[in-house]
Amino acid sequence: MAETPVQVVILAAGQGKRMHSNLPKVLHPVAGKPLVQHVIDTARTLAPAKLVVVYGHGGEVVRSTVAAPDVSWARQEPQLGTGHAVAQALPALAGAGQTLVLYGDVPLTLASTLKRLLQAGRDGLSVLTMELSDPTGYGRIVRDGAGNVRRIVEEKDATPVEKAIREVNTGIMAIPSARLGDWLGRLSNTNAQGEYYLTDIVALAVAEGIPVRTAHPDNQWEVLGVNSKVQLAELERVQQRNLADAMLVAGVRLADPDRIDVRGDLTHGRDVFIDVGCVFEGRVELGDAVEVGPYCVLKNVKIGAGAQIAAFCHFDDATIGPDAVVGPFARLRPGAELGPEVHIGNFVEVKKSRLAARSKANHLAYIGDAEVGERVNVGAGTIVCNYDGANKYKTIIEDDVFIGSDTQLVAPVTVGRGATLGAGTTLTRDAPPDALTISRARQTTVPGWVRPKKAQK
Ligand code: UD1
Ligand code: CA
Questions:
Q1: Chain-centre distance of CA 83, in angstroms?
Q2: Is the CB of 198 under 6 A from ligand 1?
Q3: CATH number for the segment(s) 6-223
Q4: Where in the chain is the domain with CATH 3.90.550.10?
Q5: Per-residue pLDDT, 441
Q6: Mean pLDDT, rounded, for 102-117
Q7: Within the chain, which residue ranges are assigned CATH 2.160.10.10?
């Protein structure tokens, strides 16, 4: 099928007063991504010849947030209506093919729906419409006796008979680019809102004998816009359910598809299981057969095949090797790299440290700025003292080291291969390989010692 070139205009100049926020409306996130970014990403799948975002007063932050080489910008100031908004994009547009108008605050339209709309409008103009049981607030699609679209009337300009029409304008339209400039130039603002309505171009097309057709979304949520935090929260749930369903279809086992939040890109292998209440942010990769326990927060994490993550873990910028066992209550901070079969247990924090294969820190430890070899056993209560209040230093723990409980390693320090550190050691100098190093004071018992007593009153 030969495609006509498509140009996309995204309207994003509206104020969003009802959001009660300093953040521009179109930058509020759904599934961790700004509303307008969803629209841009979907538009991109149509391979548009041009992608123009119309932004408004105070929208510089919109520009800087979603800037990309393929996105052009048109400023609309003041905002005099949807027709006026599209007119601001005209200088950036070519006169060929179709111009698709999208809204920056309608984030979840599917590309398949837009393709259907473009197809319907190939020889004219097309409008994405739907039937609503309660059409209040929307523009209504006025058809003639033969069912042909005649015009769109806004709610505020509609007669009682027109208000009874249940087919509404979603706002999304595909317009012949060659006619766009002329039509926009002929809009007037003599209407109830004193605005230049984009919707008025429908009557202009009809007057010229240009076919006007409609297409419809498969799902109502595809055309829902965000005007308030209530609607933002509703679309968040819709999108989370969409993402969860896609994961189920792809073979992930979810304990409950309504209790998972993905705010970024989650990729997965086969036979992955995710328990309830987990939050995934940024880029998360789960290898084959990974299991994630309940209530974990994973941000920018790569987890190797077969690894098991127990409940209540918090990972940020970390890599976990295959068959590792982590948690419950483990914290991996930026630069934590766990090798294959590493075990990290409860209340263990790892930062900017590498633990090689089969090393274990099973209870209550802090490992920071350390290089840990293979098969190392880090005892309970071990602290790497990496920070002297001004600078951070490295600690090296070589293969097969055994660190007794409640040990402090005062960096910079190296523990040689096969060394053992006795429990309670405060290591301030390097420990030689294959030897027991211990800094504990010798145990004594004081004869005749009496425990102090409270004075009797
Ligand atoms: C518009 C349609 C209406 C449709 C409804 C669907 C018109 C005249 N009406 O009405 O038929 O049923 O959307 O939601 O088009 N915007 C600008 N600049 C402006 C005005 C708006 O960029 O000057 C942007 C807004 O940010 C928003 C979109 O255009 O993303 C729609 O604006 P909005 O004011 O919500 O339009 P409605 O009056 O709801
Ligand atoms: Ca609206």
A1: 32
A2: yes
A3: 3.90.550.10
A4: 6-223
A5: 86
A6: 98
A7: 229-437
Question: Catalytic residue positions?
Answer: 363
Ligand 1 atom with the shortest distance to the CA of 55? 22
Q: How far apart are CA 120 and CA 101, in angstroms?
A: 15
d(C-alpha 433, C-alpha 219), whole Å: 67
Assess whether the previous peptide bond of 412 is cis (omega < 30° from 0).
yes
Give CA–CA dist 378/367, Å, rounded.
9
Region 280-297: what's the mean pLDDT?
98
Read off the pLDDT of each residue in 19-45 and give the average, rounded to a whole number: 97
Confidence of residue 16 (pLDDT cuts 50, 70, 90): confident
| CB atoms closer than 10 angstroms to residue 151 | 21
φ, ψ dihedrals at 390, nearest 5°: -130, -45
Atom of ligand 1 nearest to the CA of 169: 12
The total number of residues written for the chain in this structure: 457
Given this model, what pLDDT does residue 3 score? 63
What pLDDT sits at residue 4? Answer: 79
Angle at 181 between CA 179 and CA 184, to 5 degrees: 105
DSSP string of 95-136, one letter each residue = SSSEEEEEETT-----HHHHHHHHHHTTTSEEEEEEE-S--T
Q: Whose CA is nearest to atom 16 of ligand 1?
A: 14
Across residues 93-97, what is the average pLDDT?
Answer: 95
Q: Is the CB of 37 inside a 6 Å radius of any atom of ligand 1?
A: no
- The whole-chain average pLDDT of the chain stands at 97
Q: Is the peptide bond before 447 cis (omega within 30 degrees of 0)?
A: no
pLDDT over threshold 90, residue 47: yes
- Cβ–ligand 1 distance for 14 under 6 Å, the answer yes
CB-based contact 269:290 (threshold 8 Å): yes
What's the rounded Cα separation, in Å, for the pair 287 and 267?
A: 8
Task: Using pLDDT thresholds of 50, 70 and 90, give the confidence band for residue 1.
Answer: very low
Is the sign of the CA dihedral 409, 410, 416, 417 positive or negative? positive
Q: What share of the chain in percent tops pLDDT 90?
A: 96
- For domain 229-437, give the CATH number: 2.160.10.10
Query: pLDDT tens digits, residue range 406-439?
Result: 999 999 999 999 999 999 999 999 999 999 999 9
How many A from CA of 102 to the centre of ligand 2? Answer: 12
Terminal Cα distance for the chain, rounded: 101
